[in-house]
Amino acid sequence: MTSYMSKLLTAFTVATLSLPLSAAAGTYTLTSPGTDQHAWVNGGQFEIGRFSLQSNVGDILGLNTSVTLMDQGWGGQDPTNGVYVGLFAGETALYTLHVAGANHAWKTDYYSLTSNPGDFAGINAALDNATWNAGVTVRMYSNAWDYLGWELHTRNVSLAMTSGVLPAVPEPSSYGMMLGGLTLLGAAAWRRQARTMS
Asked: Higher model confidence: residue 11 or residue 186?
């Protein structure tokens, strides 16, 4: 292969490799057989589990939960009873997702972050602004109303989260510049070849 073709191939390879690629994603999972909360015994927030994030996480790309729960109480249902996933810096809540609501009968609730674009944008914006030296964690917890006769029970609790870096979308001008550069390299190689043949 001639040297100009070798250079052209090298330039094309470098240009292709410089295009943004998706970073390898990390996966976090959490499971629990369930929780039982009774008013005035262990009401309020009850942590199911947590995991710590490293400062190079980048973005939360996916978060899915499944929770079977029942809310027993007098009268109506309290909308704050249920299961939450929160992003915390130290003990400060940065963003909270309500992933399972209160039900007076056993019911399984599913939540998907990618199906909720507002939450997807909100939790990633909070992650971008997190104070990492405080320690950033994702916590799953239940919240039972602390009122006489009220109970909250969960079963088969699961949380799966993936993290990584959302690939930047290049501007059309970036592709135009790359194509222009390759065209110039090709034209120079063609002229050089035409000179050596004459």
From this structure: 186
What is the Cα–Cα distance from 126 to 129, expressed in whole angstroms?
5
Identify whether the C-beta of residue 77 lies closer than 8 Å to the C-beta of residue 102: yes
Assign 15 a pLDDT band (cuts: 50, 70, 90). very low
CA distances from 138 to 68, 93, 123, 149, 152 (A): 20, 10, 11, 31, 22
- pLDDT single digits (tens) 110-148: 999 999 999 999 999 999 999 888 899 999 999 887 776
Q: Which two tokens stand for residue 151?
A: 């109970």
Query: Long-range contacts made by residues 181-185, C-beta under 8 angstroms, separation at least 24?
Result: 181/11, 181/15, 182/8, 182/11, 182/12, 182/15, 185/7, 185/8, 185/11
